[in-house]
Amino acid sequence: MEQWTFDFTDPQSTEKAKMRVRFSEHFDEFIEFDVELNPLPIDDGKDKDVTVNFKMLNGFDPQG
């Protein structure tokens, strides 16, 4: 099992995110992503939607 951890911090605000990517050479079709975000404000009483968008490098071929 191999794991890469990416930490993102916005220097202009207190926003942070951490993403962990795990994969193993023993499981050809298995990649796991964990994404942690800093707390979302809930004191306004409004519902929130969170999306995570990934962009792949040029030449990425998912082969179906």
Would you write up a description of this structure?
This protein has no helices and three strands. Strands 1-2-3 form a three-stranded antiparallel beta sheet, with no helix packed on it. The protein has a domain at 2-37. Strand 2 and strand 3 (31-37) form a beta hairpin. The protein is mainly β and 64 residues long. The protein is elongated.
Question: Which helices and strands, and how do they pair?
Answer:
Layout: E1 2-9, E2 16-23, E3 31-37
Antiparallel strand pairs: 1-2, 2-3
Any key phrases for this structure?
single chain, 64 residues, 3-stranded antiparallel sheet, 3 strands, 0% helix
Biggest beta-sheet profile = 3 strands, antiparallel
First CA to last CA: what distance? 24 Å
Instruction: From the alpha carbons, calculate the radius of gyration and give it in angstroms.
Output: 16 Å
* Order of helical and strand elements: EEE
From the spread of the alpha carbons, the general shape counts as: elongated
Average pLDDT confidence is 78
Number of helices: 0
Residues in helices, as a percent range? under 10%
- As residue ranges, the low-confidence spans are none
Structural class: mainly beta
Which strands sit side by side, in order, in the main sheet?
Answer: 1-2-3
Q: How many DSSP-defined strands?
A: 3
Percentage beta strand: 35-45%
